[in-house]
Design goal:
The structure is a homodimer.
Chain A (H helix, E strand, L loop, with lengths): L16 E13 L4 E7 L2 E7 L10 E10 L7 E12 L18 H6 L1 H4 L3 H22 L4 E2 L5 E2 L11 E4 L2 E5 L4 H11 L1 E9 L12 E10 L4 H22 L1 H6 L13 E3 H8 L11 H15 L3 E5 L12 E2 L2 E5 L1 E6 L2 E9 L3 H10 L8 H7 L6 E7 H9 L20
Helix pairs in contact in A: 3-5, 3-11
């Protein structure tokens, strides 16, 4: 049997007998001719039949025929004189028309029927962007001496917020789903100096927002032997640049189909200190311990206007709004060696320098009035010599949503999990 | 400040002033000279001091000095005339001597102190092999048109064995940790045709064995438009070959340190039918529905002896020992279009062709006397036109353990989770 040809490659085979395979994307019956549009992972192929053929949308077909040039056909080539084999017939019609330029269904309906809805070229394209982004993330870090790691998602105690964790019955013991690989990636700086992980994290987020999921994919990195958080920011800048480059390189068709605009990543991303940012924002921002979403939008606008950058670092957040492992600024210890990276109006990344001395951890917990016992495993790591280190975490779905201008992070998630959704 | 130089690069800087940083791996005080061996992520550096220096093992130091050729030093170069800065001092000594060629501690002790034990060069090296393996896996599939996906680890119903799942409280509803991405990767064949995922899977394995973990890293792949399981086996062969090549290329030092031998992956891996294999094994194997571990070892020995291959496919397992979604052999429907890949005596990979027609799923469940209702979401996927497809899953930790000759899969896991272990 001749090898299968993908739609995107068909133009190289004009005049040859070819075999294509895919799903019936659309069928149009005219008086003396039937057009089948067959969809495969690379695109669409037009097949011309001299007779009627009663196949429903999403029937899986194999088509053997002649690749024939035709300027009117998608890609300038169509298949004539076809022999069609039905590989699989649907048991029911799809819940929406996949051939239309946009899916006309509400987000809940789309998510209820995700396995079918994702077949729509514009939905599928989002995940080509996602896949290219993780490729760029790994390439940037892999070429900078980082080791990829896989850490436990089941943990015995809760070290971060304490709230918003999923409980799990672990052989009769109480355990939790990890909210982040924070503990482990720090511990592994002691082993590999530089580590990254691409993996699921879990938040029992009790609010129904467009920005939060019960499970999302965290792109985590941590590196040792830094001077301070600025070394982390430099690695993050290069990582984001590599992600954008990988999307352009490996998902260019998807970007064009979605009419998305990729950002330029400046060689040095502009940066503003938290207090200066508050001063710029004026009276109702000043003195607050954090930035409100509206403030993040205003700062992003400012960075674009003044620096021509869609990215902006905000540095030096107050210690009291950062986790206890955050490293303070040496000269101004109520502020931290931390940063957020804003992208197109929202916080995309949080990161910073961490404490690295055992005594500093004990002091930080004591200052917050916290019992060190639940942190015992975590603290043990720092009893054995840890270098100055820091890191960051990028939420993959949030990144893709922002890059493609999707209003809801669920639109950048294959099968979202949230307060109301446990299926499909 | 001059840039930091890694131990492995020091030989390029002989005669220069350099800065290295790392952990005090060993300190040896002689009468008039002190040697510090400093460990970083790339190797060891010898530092020569004219005076005594009381620093404990695992102290984090920065050393500025002159790179000086010395055939007796590791790598043929050492640092003389040093200035030493202590970046971080341990609060307590390490629980074992990291400088000895092997860690002399039992596995439970090693695992209890994983964050320190993993600093030992031979332990760390295992994970360089692991990281290179996943790189090879992704490269093989990425260049063959596969899309990387991230699927839910929290599921609303249990579709595979039913036993051995972890229950979770999901906003007051009963949910489970996914035992595999099986459902999702099949559904996504309908979207992307070819998908892979590298992610955690969870098994509430109630037995304490050297081969099972409560969480492990599954390298999953699934592809559509196959003729049968042999197309899957061909992709698996190329994937394993790419994994071995990536280990040789990116973790060669680790392989040498561990004195491991990488296998040749034959252009075509030898294959034996299940029934023929039983006939070879003789009386006590014949008629059984599966192969015992001892049988797998015998078959592996046979493949090495007769075919010179450390890999062996066993195909055509009886349907009754395979999951309900398994595709039967067309000519012999009590046997399946499935395979195991044996490597050095153990089953490394399970895979095969799946059913793809909705009616076949309903019939398969009915034949097993199972209620289709818990499978509703799963079955919906097949109501909408699915191509013939199949796939496989490689357990990353099992692969690394076998490749490196480690007796226990926990030795290839950074922070294992099992019946008795929830920390660190």
């Amino acid at each position: 049997m001749i090898s299968r040809v993908l739609a995107a490659e068909l133009h190289r085979h004009v005049g040859e007998r070819v075999r294509v395979a895919g799903w019936v994307h659309r069928r149009r019956e005219l008086k003396s001719v039937t057009f089948l549009i067959v969809r495969d992972r690379s695109g669409l192929t037009q097949v011309v039949l001299a007779q009627s053929l009663a196949v429903g949308a999403e029937t899986v077909v194999e088509v053997s025929g002649t690749a024939t040039a035709n300027q009117q056909a998608p890609g300038g080539v169509e298949i004539t004189d076809p022999t069609i084999t039905l590989l699989s017939e649907p048991a029911e019609p799809p819940p929406f028309d996949l051939f239309r330029p946009r899916l006309s269904a509400t987000l809940p309906t789309v998510l209820d029927h995700a396995a079918v809805a994702l077949r729509h070229p514009t939905l599928r394209a989002r995940f080509a962007v996602s896949s290219a982004s993780t490729f760029g993330f790994r390439t940037a870090l892999g070429t900078r001496g980082f080791t990829e790691v896989h850490t436990p998602k089941i943990v015995g105690s809760v070290t971060e917020s304490g709230a918003n964790v999923f409980g799990i019955d672990f052989f009769g013991r109480r355990a939790y789903l990890a909210q982040s690989p924070q503990l482990f990636k720090q511990a592994l700086v002691g082993v590999f100096e530089r580590v990254y992980e691409v993996g699921p994290v879990f938040r029992a987020e009790p609010h129904d927002t467009t920005r939060h999921l019960a499970q999302y994919t965290s792109l985590d990195a941590e590196l040792g032997f830094i001077a301070d958080h600025r070394d982390v920011m430099a690695v993050l800048r290069d990582t984001v640049a590599a992600m954008v480059a990988a999307v352009a390189d490996r998902a260019g068709d998807a970007v064009r189909l979605l009419a998305a605009t990729l950002p330029d990543v400046p060689a040095e991303i502009p940066s503003v200190d938290f207090v200066e940012a508050q001063d710029m924002l004026g009276e109702n921002a000043r003195g607050e311990p954090d930035l409100a979403p509206a403030h993040e939008r205003l700062l992003s606008d400012w960075a674009l206007r003044v620096h021509g950058s869609e990215f902006l670092f905000v540095t030096g957040y107050p210690m009291r709004k950062r986790p206890f492992y955050t490293h303070p600024q040496p000269a101004r210890p109520e502020f931290s060696n931390s940063f957020d990276l804003l992208f197109r109006g929202v916080e995309l990344v949080t990161g910073g320098q961490r404490l690295h001395r055992h005594a500093d951890y004990l002091a930080a917990l004591a200052a917050r009035g916290e019992d060190p016992e639940p942190y015992r495993t975590y603290l043990d790591v720092f009893a054995h010599g840890m270098p100055p280190h820091g890191g960051f975490a990028i939420g993959l779905e949030r990144w893709v949503a922002r890059l493609l201008g999707l209003a809801n992070v669920r639109e950048a998630t294959l099968f979202p999990r949230d307060l109301h959704r446990l299926e499909p």
